[in-house]
């Protein structure tokens, strides 16, 4: 389970203080459904990305690493990530919480689904209208640098928060939430946001929660082609479930603890000290998380080569221990041999170039376990 609670000053640097269970590994939806598609890579993209090609006989896939950030609006954290990504030729994915594109005074424009009160958001809203204008400007730079913007939906209603929470929503509620996300982004686009109308292709649900048989049909009907909310044991290749690619969050071993943990920053913090704020231990926690990331990369690189999902929030939890570990890993891994730090769309583009039989063979390989 993962939580992002916002504040008016910086909508992404607080966590719920209460104990939270780890997200369970959940069964796949009952239906596979049609395989979704994304636009083919452009000639310019092919020129810049030599790895974007059909594998030859005996050729191994690139080791993809997918850095993805829930909420995705903190300028101070983008200001750290963007220069590293540019230097390392890396692309990342920001999963935008729609409410962060609405000023506090405009919060009543958001009507949460499932009978929740108009203007309610468990992560607040986006500050002043001036804050929103500034946010549009720096997110435009994120887009210009080739990074992806997906959705983290809107009001972030988790089991521990306002009810009914997302795990209880039916398809109509998910449809309403996605309609609201589109309306908010459309309004931001009218104010200068350069995100193309068809660019939001997937997302992660609040706290990794949801009834997938209800949620996935709504996602597919809104043009989404991937989800990255479910949890799998080890690093596994994406598979098509209910008409979407599922890029699961890996449950991995933390070498410093000898525990299995979902590889999301909050889950790692919770496993280390029940998410208590102990900034004096920041360097210790950073090293443990960085070593975990490195061991997972090595296991996948030498194993099934499945894309590694690195789930993160832009946060300052525990003396910025987890953001620092993520930044260190971004700098460490993205120019390693045979490794590519890519967006979800780019990985799907690569998969579309492959022989389906090759993808089936990759999916049958054992999950990479560190």
- Work out the radius of gyration: 19 Å
How widely separated are the two ends?
21 Å
Strand element count: 12
Mean pLDDT: 92
| Rough outline | globular
Order of helices and strands: HEHEHEHEHEEEEEEHHEHEHH
Query: Number of helical segments?
Result: 10
Counting copies of identical and different chains, the oligomeric state is single chain
Low-confidence segments, ≥5 residues, pLDDT <50?
1-22
User: Helical proportion?
Assistant: 25-40%
Largest sheet: 5 strands, parallel
**Percentage of β-strand residues:** 5-15%
Tell me the structural class. Answer: alpha/beta
InterPro entries: CE4, Glyco_hydro/deAcase_b/a-brl
Protein name: Polysaccharide deacetylase
Region (Disordered): 1-44
Organism: Lentzea miocenica
Topology:
Elements: H1 43-48, E1 63-71, H2 75-87, E2 93-96, H3 129-144, E3 148-151, H4 171-190, E4 202-203, H5 212-221, E5 226-227, E6 231-233, E7 239-241, E8 244-246, E9 249-254, E10 259-262, H6 265-273, H7 282-301, E11 308-313, H8 317-333, E12 339-341, H9 344-352, H10 356-364
Helix pairs in contact: 2-8, 4-5, 7-8
InterPro entries: CE4 (IPR052740), Glyco_hydro/deAcase_b/a-brl (IPR011330)
Region (Disordered): 1-44
Protein name: Polysaccharide deacetylase
Could you please describe the fold and organization of this structure?
The protein has 370 residues and is of the alpha/beta class. It has 10 helices and 12 strands. It has helices at residues 43-48, 75-87, 129-144, 171-190, 212-221, 265-273, 282-301, 317-333, 344-352, 356-364; strands at 63-71, 93-96, 148-151, 202-203, 226-227, 231-233, 239-241, 244-246, 249-254, 259-262, 308-313, 339-341. The strands form 3 sheets. Strands 1, 2, 3, 11 and 12 form a 5-stranded parallel beta sheet that branches. It has a 4-stranded mixed beta sheet with strand order 4-5-8-7. Strand 4 (202-203), helix 5 (212-221) and strand 5 (226-227) form a beta-alpha-beta unit. The longest helix is centred in the middle third of the chain and has 20 residues, at 171-190. The radius of gyration is 19 Å and the shape is globular.
